[in-house]
Each structure stands twice: as structure tokens, then as C-alpha cells.
Amino acid sequence: MTLTAISRRRLLKVGAAGLAASALPFGIARAQTNVVLGIVYVGPKDDFGWNQAHAVSVESLKALPGITVVEEENVPETDAVSKSMESMINLDGANLILATSFGYYNPFVVELAKKYPDVTFRHAAPLWNKDKDPANAGSYFPYLNQAHYVNGVAAGLSSGGKIGFVAAKPIPSVLSNINSVLLGARSVNPNATVQVIFTGEWSLPVREAEATNALVDAGCEVITCHVDSPKVVIETAEGRGVKTAGHNASQAPLAPKGFITGAEYKWETIYKSYADDIAAGKTPPNFLVGGYNNDMLRNTPYGAGATPEAIAAADAAIAALVAGAPIYKGTLKDNAGNVVVDKDYDNYDPYLDGMNWLLEGVQGSIT
Amino acid sequence: MTAETADSTAIPAKAGPSLGLLRLAEAVSIPVGALLVSAVLFALFLLAIGKDPIQFYQLIWTGGFGSSFSIQNSLQRAAPLILTGLAFAIPARIGLTMIGGEGALVLGGFSAAAIAIPLVSNAVPVPLTLFVMALTAVVSGGLWVGFTGWLKYARGVNETIASLLMSYIAIAIMNFFVEGALRDPASANKPSTMPIGDAYRVGAIPGTEVHWGFAAGVVLALLLWVLMSRTTFGFAARMTGGNLRAARAQGLPVGWLMVVCCAIAGACAGLAGFFEVAAIHGQANASLVAGYGFTGILVAFLARQNPLAVIPVAILFGALAAAGGVIQRRMGMPDATILVLQGMMFVVLLVSETFYGRLKLFQPRATGERT
Fold it and tell me: pLDDT above 90 covers what percent of chain A?
């Protein structure tokens, strides 16, 4: 009897020691000043697109002292994502969770943020609502259309001004990128046009290739796009011998002959600022948007397709955006003839977030 | 063919009571042995690419079963897989390769979310609403796959192709309504139906964080095991699966059996869809198309179409999915690692099928001769 009691106690002791030992490496990570950043991606980390842009950015954080990065790719927008995030919190001691796909937010990020009030959750789309959502959740989102504007400037001077655009869905953020390419191209070439084809889905490689071919057949000299992974579009266009401008991440290696430049997110600015805030014991901002003026965007280094005049003009356009120059200005009509812009709008004006029009000069239709 | 069919055929009179035990031992040790072999093969693969297999299996344990959180993580992920596994296993017993679980899940989930809209807006009591939702999901899933079974019986349409194509139609039907008539205007960038609201959500099993879909799957698996191996219906179904012409010659209602087995399968998958909507998403949208229906095929295969074995296999798959994340994070291996492991298990298990009835160890000594 005594024997069993002792052995049971010893068992408990050994068990406790084992638990303590297994917790040790992560116990250090849980200390106040250290940041354990957990990030989930909806697709593969090397998709030449949205997910790669995030992955490249957190990669650059790994070298910094006091930051541990844990990553998980191909996490679907189901309870799998809440379990993955919870596993990062429970098993890796994550204190900063970055959820990078649109559908992760509701209900998964919101519910988990309520359950773990000490963990900071940030989500890559402007969805956080001050009145409804937990205070430890939040949103971040750079306005990529500013970099697409630069794409337009460079494309307008690297070609005759006939630009093709392969787009996923006719939602405001996509429409703004299309319109910004046109405005950038028109700023250097008043006759420039943009022809757009919507595929209807974020990732439909076959239809993206068909759309690219159709645009090239229609006489487009530069192809750009807004789909999750621009790989197919850029490679198809390069194969057809036309120039290309990128989206989301760097596609320069895919088009050695025709690549001009590309619109890229600079997520590391945001991620670094979050990590710094948490290390300093501060709460990172709940809602963080930006663009060239606060170093949240970049354009891919110019490729062989960019002409010297295009490079000079694009560099000047970037400098102007850094200083806050507006993109939507003056009086602009949509391609049905209605006036949709009647004054200079700030690049973050809420009016532009509800954009449901394509400007005059864009060939294509939302419906 | 399977342990049960062997059970019911050609049992020598003198076999004695140990035969059932031998059959059970065979049915357990062959798949377990196959899993161990595939684990060893995968360890060799890991060594070949310079990773530590011991760390890998430790992480599988940590991520899948190592703590209360990990166990619940595994069980939660297993919940839809039990139901979609049954959706493949039941028609397989009657000889049909029905792979339409994905479509029935999506349609079940969508119809449950759709029927909930008028019920929720009229403040119908929660239990009644959930019951109607579950019933709608079960019926729509059952009709959907049952129809494929009828096509097979009445028109001779290949059920594998038909059920796969029917899945795409089901997904298209959901997309049509979710992006059109039934779209919640607030869901701008991700079209969804109206949320059913927190009050109408199915909660967790008390004392856990695992939703009720897991319990429903376990109960259904038990019931279907009884149905398929302890009733005349199950016997008739298995006989039809074993030899269609013989079953017909015996006067069995073959067509009816096929349609019912398919309807049961669709009902299981539809119920999985109901739980995805009522316990997880709170609405129907494209996230319902998560591939559970297709993973269920693999689960049922590894369970050798035995409804009871579907439970542990689904939990194993849930654990692998749960551990997959930890392996990505700690070992820096890509997501596909777990797929490679699953693929190896699948191949080795298929090979192990050939060992049934051939290992001396599991043969009754007194009656050495078998047909």
C-alpha cells in the first residue's frame, strides 16, 4: 500500500519534471520582452504571390534578436485555422498571431481573440470593427494601388500604352488597382488604355492563361494582373513575347526578357512595428493602413523590359507618392460617362474604398 | 473479401470458438502492421532528406495526442472525417465506389444554412431550428447521393464518375445561391448566407471543446456497424456487394438496397455539412468546400470499409492534420510532408490487403484447408 503510494507520488514527480523539461525551450520564449510571432498562410509559401509576399517579409524578421517566427502554410479557412492558431499559442507560446487570409477573420480570429485576451491578433484585411470586435484583435492593410500606379507609369513609357489586366473579382480593391494602372499610364501617355478581363476567382490558372492570351491577341503590349498567384499570367505573357508588370510579390525571375516592375507589399514594415511594440510592452495599433508614404509598399527592381525614361518617370512617381501626392484627382469619368471623381481625393479617402466603377480608358465591365 | 464476409462464409464446423478471435486478430494486426511498416518507410524517407525521424514522430505525438489541447484538436478535426468516411464505406459494402461525399456535405451544409434563414428571423426556438436544419441537411444529402445510386441501378450510369460530377454540381448550386439570391449583403468580399447567430450555434460536448459532430459521428458509426454486420439488411447488402448476380438470383431487392445504402451515405455527409455550418462557420460559404469528402475516401479505405474502424482511422487522420502544423513550425518542413506520409500509408495498406487469409498465424490449426 505504502509502496504504491510512493511510486504513484514518484510517478507524479517524474511526470512533472518531464513536463517542466519539455516546456523549457518555449518557457524562455514566453518571457516578457521576447516576441513569438505565429503566421498562417492559406496557400503555399512559394506561390509567387500573396502568400510568398508575407513569407518573404517574416523571413527577414527571423534574423532579428528576440523574435521567434513560427509558420504554417496551406491552412484552409475552416476550424483548421483556429486550431492552428491555438496550437501556436498553446504549444509554441505565440504572443502575436498574424492571420493572412480574408476568410480567417470571421468567425475564427474574432472567437479566438475573445478566448485568448493576452495574445495579439492581427489580420491582413481592413475588417476590424472598433465597436464589435475584441480589443486584442486588429487589421492591417497597405493600399497596393499606389504601387500599381507606379506600374502604370513604367508600363506607359515602356510600350505604346496598350495595357492588358487580368483581374480576379470586381471588388473595390481590385478595381482600384486597375484604375490606378490607367491613371499612372495616362500621366505619361494620354492615349494609354487598359483592357481588363475578370476571371471570377482568386486562383483559376487555366482561365488566367486564357485571359492573358486573349489580351495579347487583342494587341496589348504590357500584361499585368491582380490574382492570388500571378505566376501563370507572367509566364504566359513572357512566352508570348510581351512585357509584364507584377503584383503581390516579385515575379522578376519568371520574365527575364519582358519584366518592367511590379507592385509589392512591404509587410515587414508592419510586422517589425508590431514586434517592436510587443517587445516594448505596448499594444500595437488596432487598425493600420498605409502605402508609399509610410514605407508599406515597394516596386520590384526594374527588369529588362523597363526603358530608361520609364525608370526615371517611375522613380519620380514613387517620390511623389512618398510625399503624399493624390492619384485620383481632378474630374474623372467612368467608362459609362458618369463623373465619379470631381475633386482631388486623398489616397486613403473612404470614398475610394467603395469604388464600383472603371474609369474612362478602361475597356471592360464589372457586371 | 473482408473479415465479416469471411466470417459468414465457409466456416468449417470444427473451427471452435477461437476462429472469431483469430479473425479479429488478423483484422487488427494487418492494418496496424501496415501502419508500422509505412512509418518505418517514412523514417527512411526523412533520413534521406536529412531530417530527424525521431523528432518527427515525437512531434506527431505532441501535436496529435500529447496534451489535452492536442487530443481535442485531433478529435475536432476527426469529426467531419468520421461522417465522410462512413459516406464512402457504406456504399463500398454493396460494391459501389461512391465518391460524392464532398458534394453531399456542401449541399447539406448549404441547405441547412438556407432553411435556417426564415427560422432564425422568425425566432423559432433553438432546438427546433437545429433539428430542422439537421433534418434538411440529412435529407438533401441523402437524396443527392441516393439519386446517384438510382442512376447506377436503373440506368447503369457509372457511379464513381456520376458521384464525382454530382459533387461539382452541388458546389455550383451553393455558389449560385450564395453569390446571388441568398447572399448576406454584409459579406462583400466573401459571399456568404446570412449568419445564423451565436444563439443558434451547436456548442461543444460538455467538458471539452470538441463540437457535437464528433459524438454524432461515433454514434452513427456504431449504428451503421450494427446495421451492416448484424442485420438481414446488412447481410443482403454485403451479399449484393460480393456477387450482384447471385444476389439477384436469390431474389434480393438489389436496386432498393443500392439506393438505400447510397442515401445513408449521403445522409452522413449531409450531416457533416450541417455540423460545419451549425458548429463551425455559422453560415454557408465557399469554405464548406474544404476537401473533407475526399479525405473521407482515404479514411474509409484505411478502415477497410468497416464503419467501426472508421472512428480510429478518422482520429488518426485528425491527429496527423493537427500534428502537421507543429511539424511545419518546428522542423521547417513543407505542408506536403504529411501528404507524403498519408500516401505511403495508403500504398502499404493496399499491399497489405493481399495478406488476408495467407498468414499461417491467423489460420485455425485444426482445419488447415480453406477455400
Answer: 78
- Least confident window among A128-132, B4-8, B177-181: B4-8
Chain B residue with minimal CA distance to A356?
A: B188
pLDDT value of position B336: 87
Angle between helices B232-242 and B68-93 (to 10 degrees): 70
CB contact under 8 A, A72 and B321: no
Closest Cα in chain A to B62: A91
Confidence tier at B15 by pLDDT (50, 70, 90) = very low
Average pLDDT, chain A: 90
Which residues between 118 and 147 in chain B have a beta carbon less than 8 angstroms from any beta carbon of chain A? none
| pLDDT, position B335 | 86
Q: Which helix (H) or strand (E) holds B343?
A: helix B336-352
Question: Which chain A residues touch B293 with a CB distance below 8 Å?
Answer: none
pLDDT in tens, A329-359: 999 999 999 999 999 999 999 899 889 899 9
Determine the pLDDT at residue A219: 96
Q: Which chain A residues touch B if contact means CB-CB below 8 Å?
A: 38, 44-45, 70-80, 83-84, 86-88, 90-92, 102-103, 107, 125, 171
Shortest CA distance from B339: residue in chain A = A74
Q: Which fold has domain A33-137?
A: Rossmann fold (3.40.50)
Domain residues of chain B, as ranges?
68-302
Residue ranges matching CATH 3.40.50.2300 in chain A: 33-137, 145-264+302-363
The alpha-carbon gap from A76 to the nearest alpha carbon of chain B, in Å, equals 7
Query: What is the structure's pLDDT at A200?
Result: 84
Q: pTM for this one?
A: 0.84
Q: Do A86 and B280 touch (CB under 8 A)?
A: no
Indicate yes or no: CB of A90 within 8 angstroms of CB of B329.
no
- Nearest-angstrom CA–CA distance, B285 and B277: 9
CA distance B335 to A43: 10
pLDDT tens digits for B276-321? 999 999 999 999 999 999 999 999 988 989 999 999 999 999 999 9
Using CA atoms, how far residue A6 sits from A9, A13, A14, A17, A350, in Å, is 5, 10, 12, 16, 69
Task: Return the residue of B nearest to A37 by Cα.
Answer: B329
At residue A162, what are phi and psi to the nearest 5 degrees? -100, 105
Q: How confident is the model at residue B22 (pLDDT cuts 50, 70, 90)?
A: confident
What class has domain A145-264+302-363? alpha beta
Could you tell me whether strands A332-333 and A339-341 are parallel, antiparallel, or unpaired per DSSP bridges? antiparallel
In the beta sheet, which residues pair with residue A123? A99, A139
Residues of B in contact with A75 (CB under 8 A): 325
Q: Is the Cβ–Cβ distance between A187 and A215 less than 8 Å? A: no
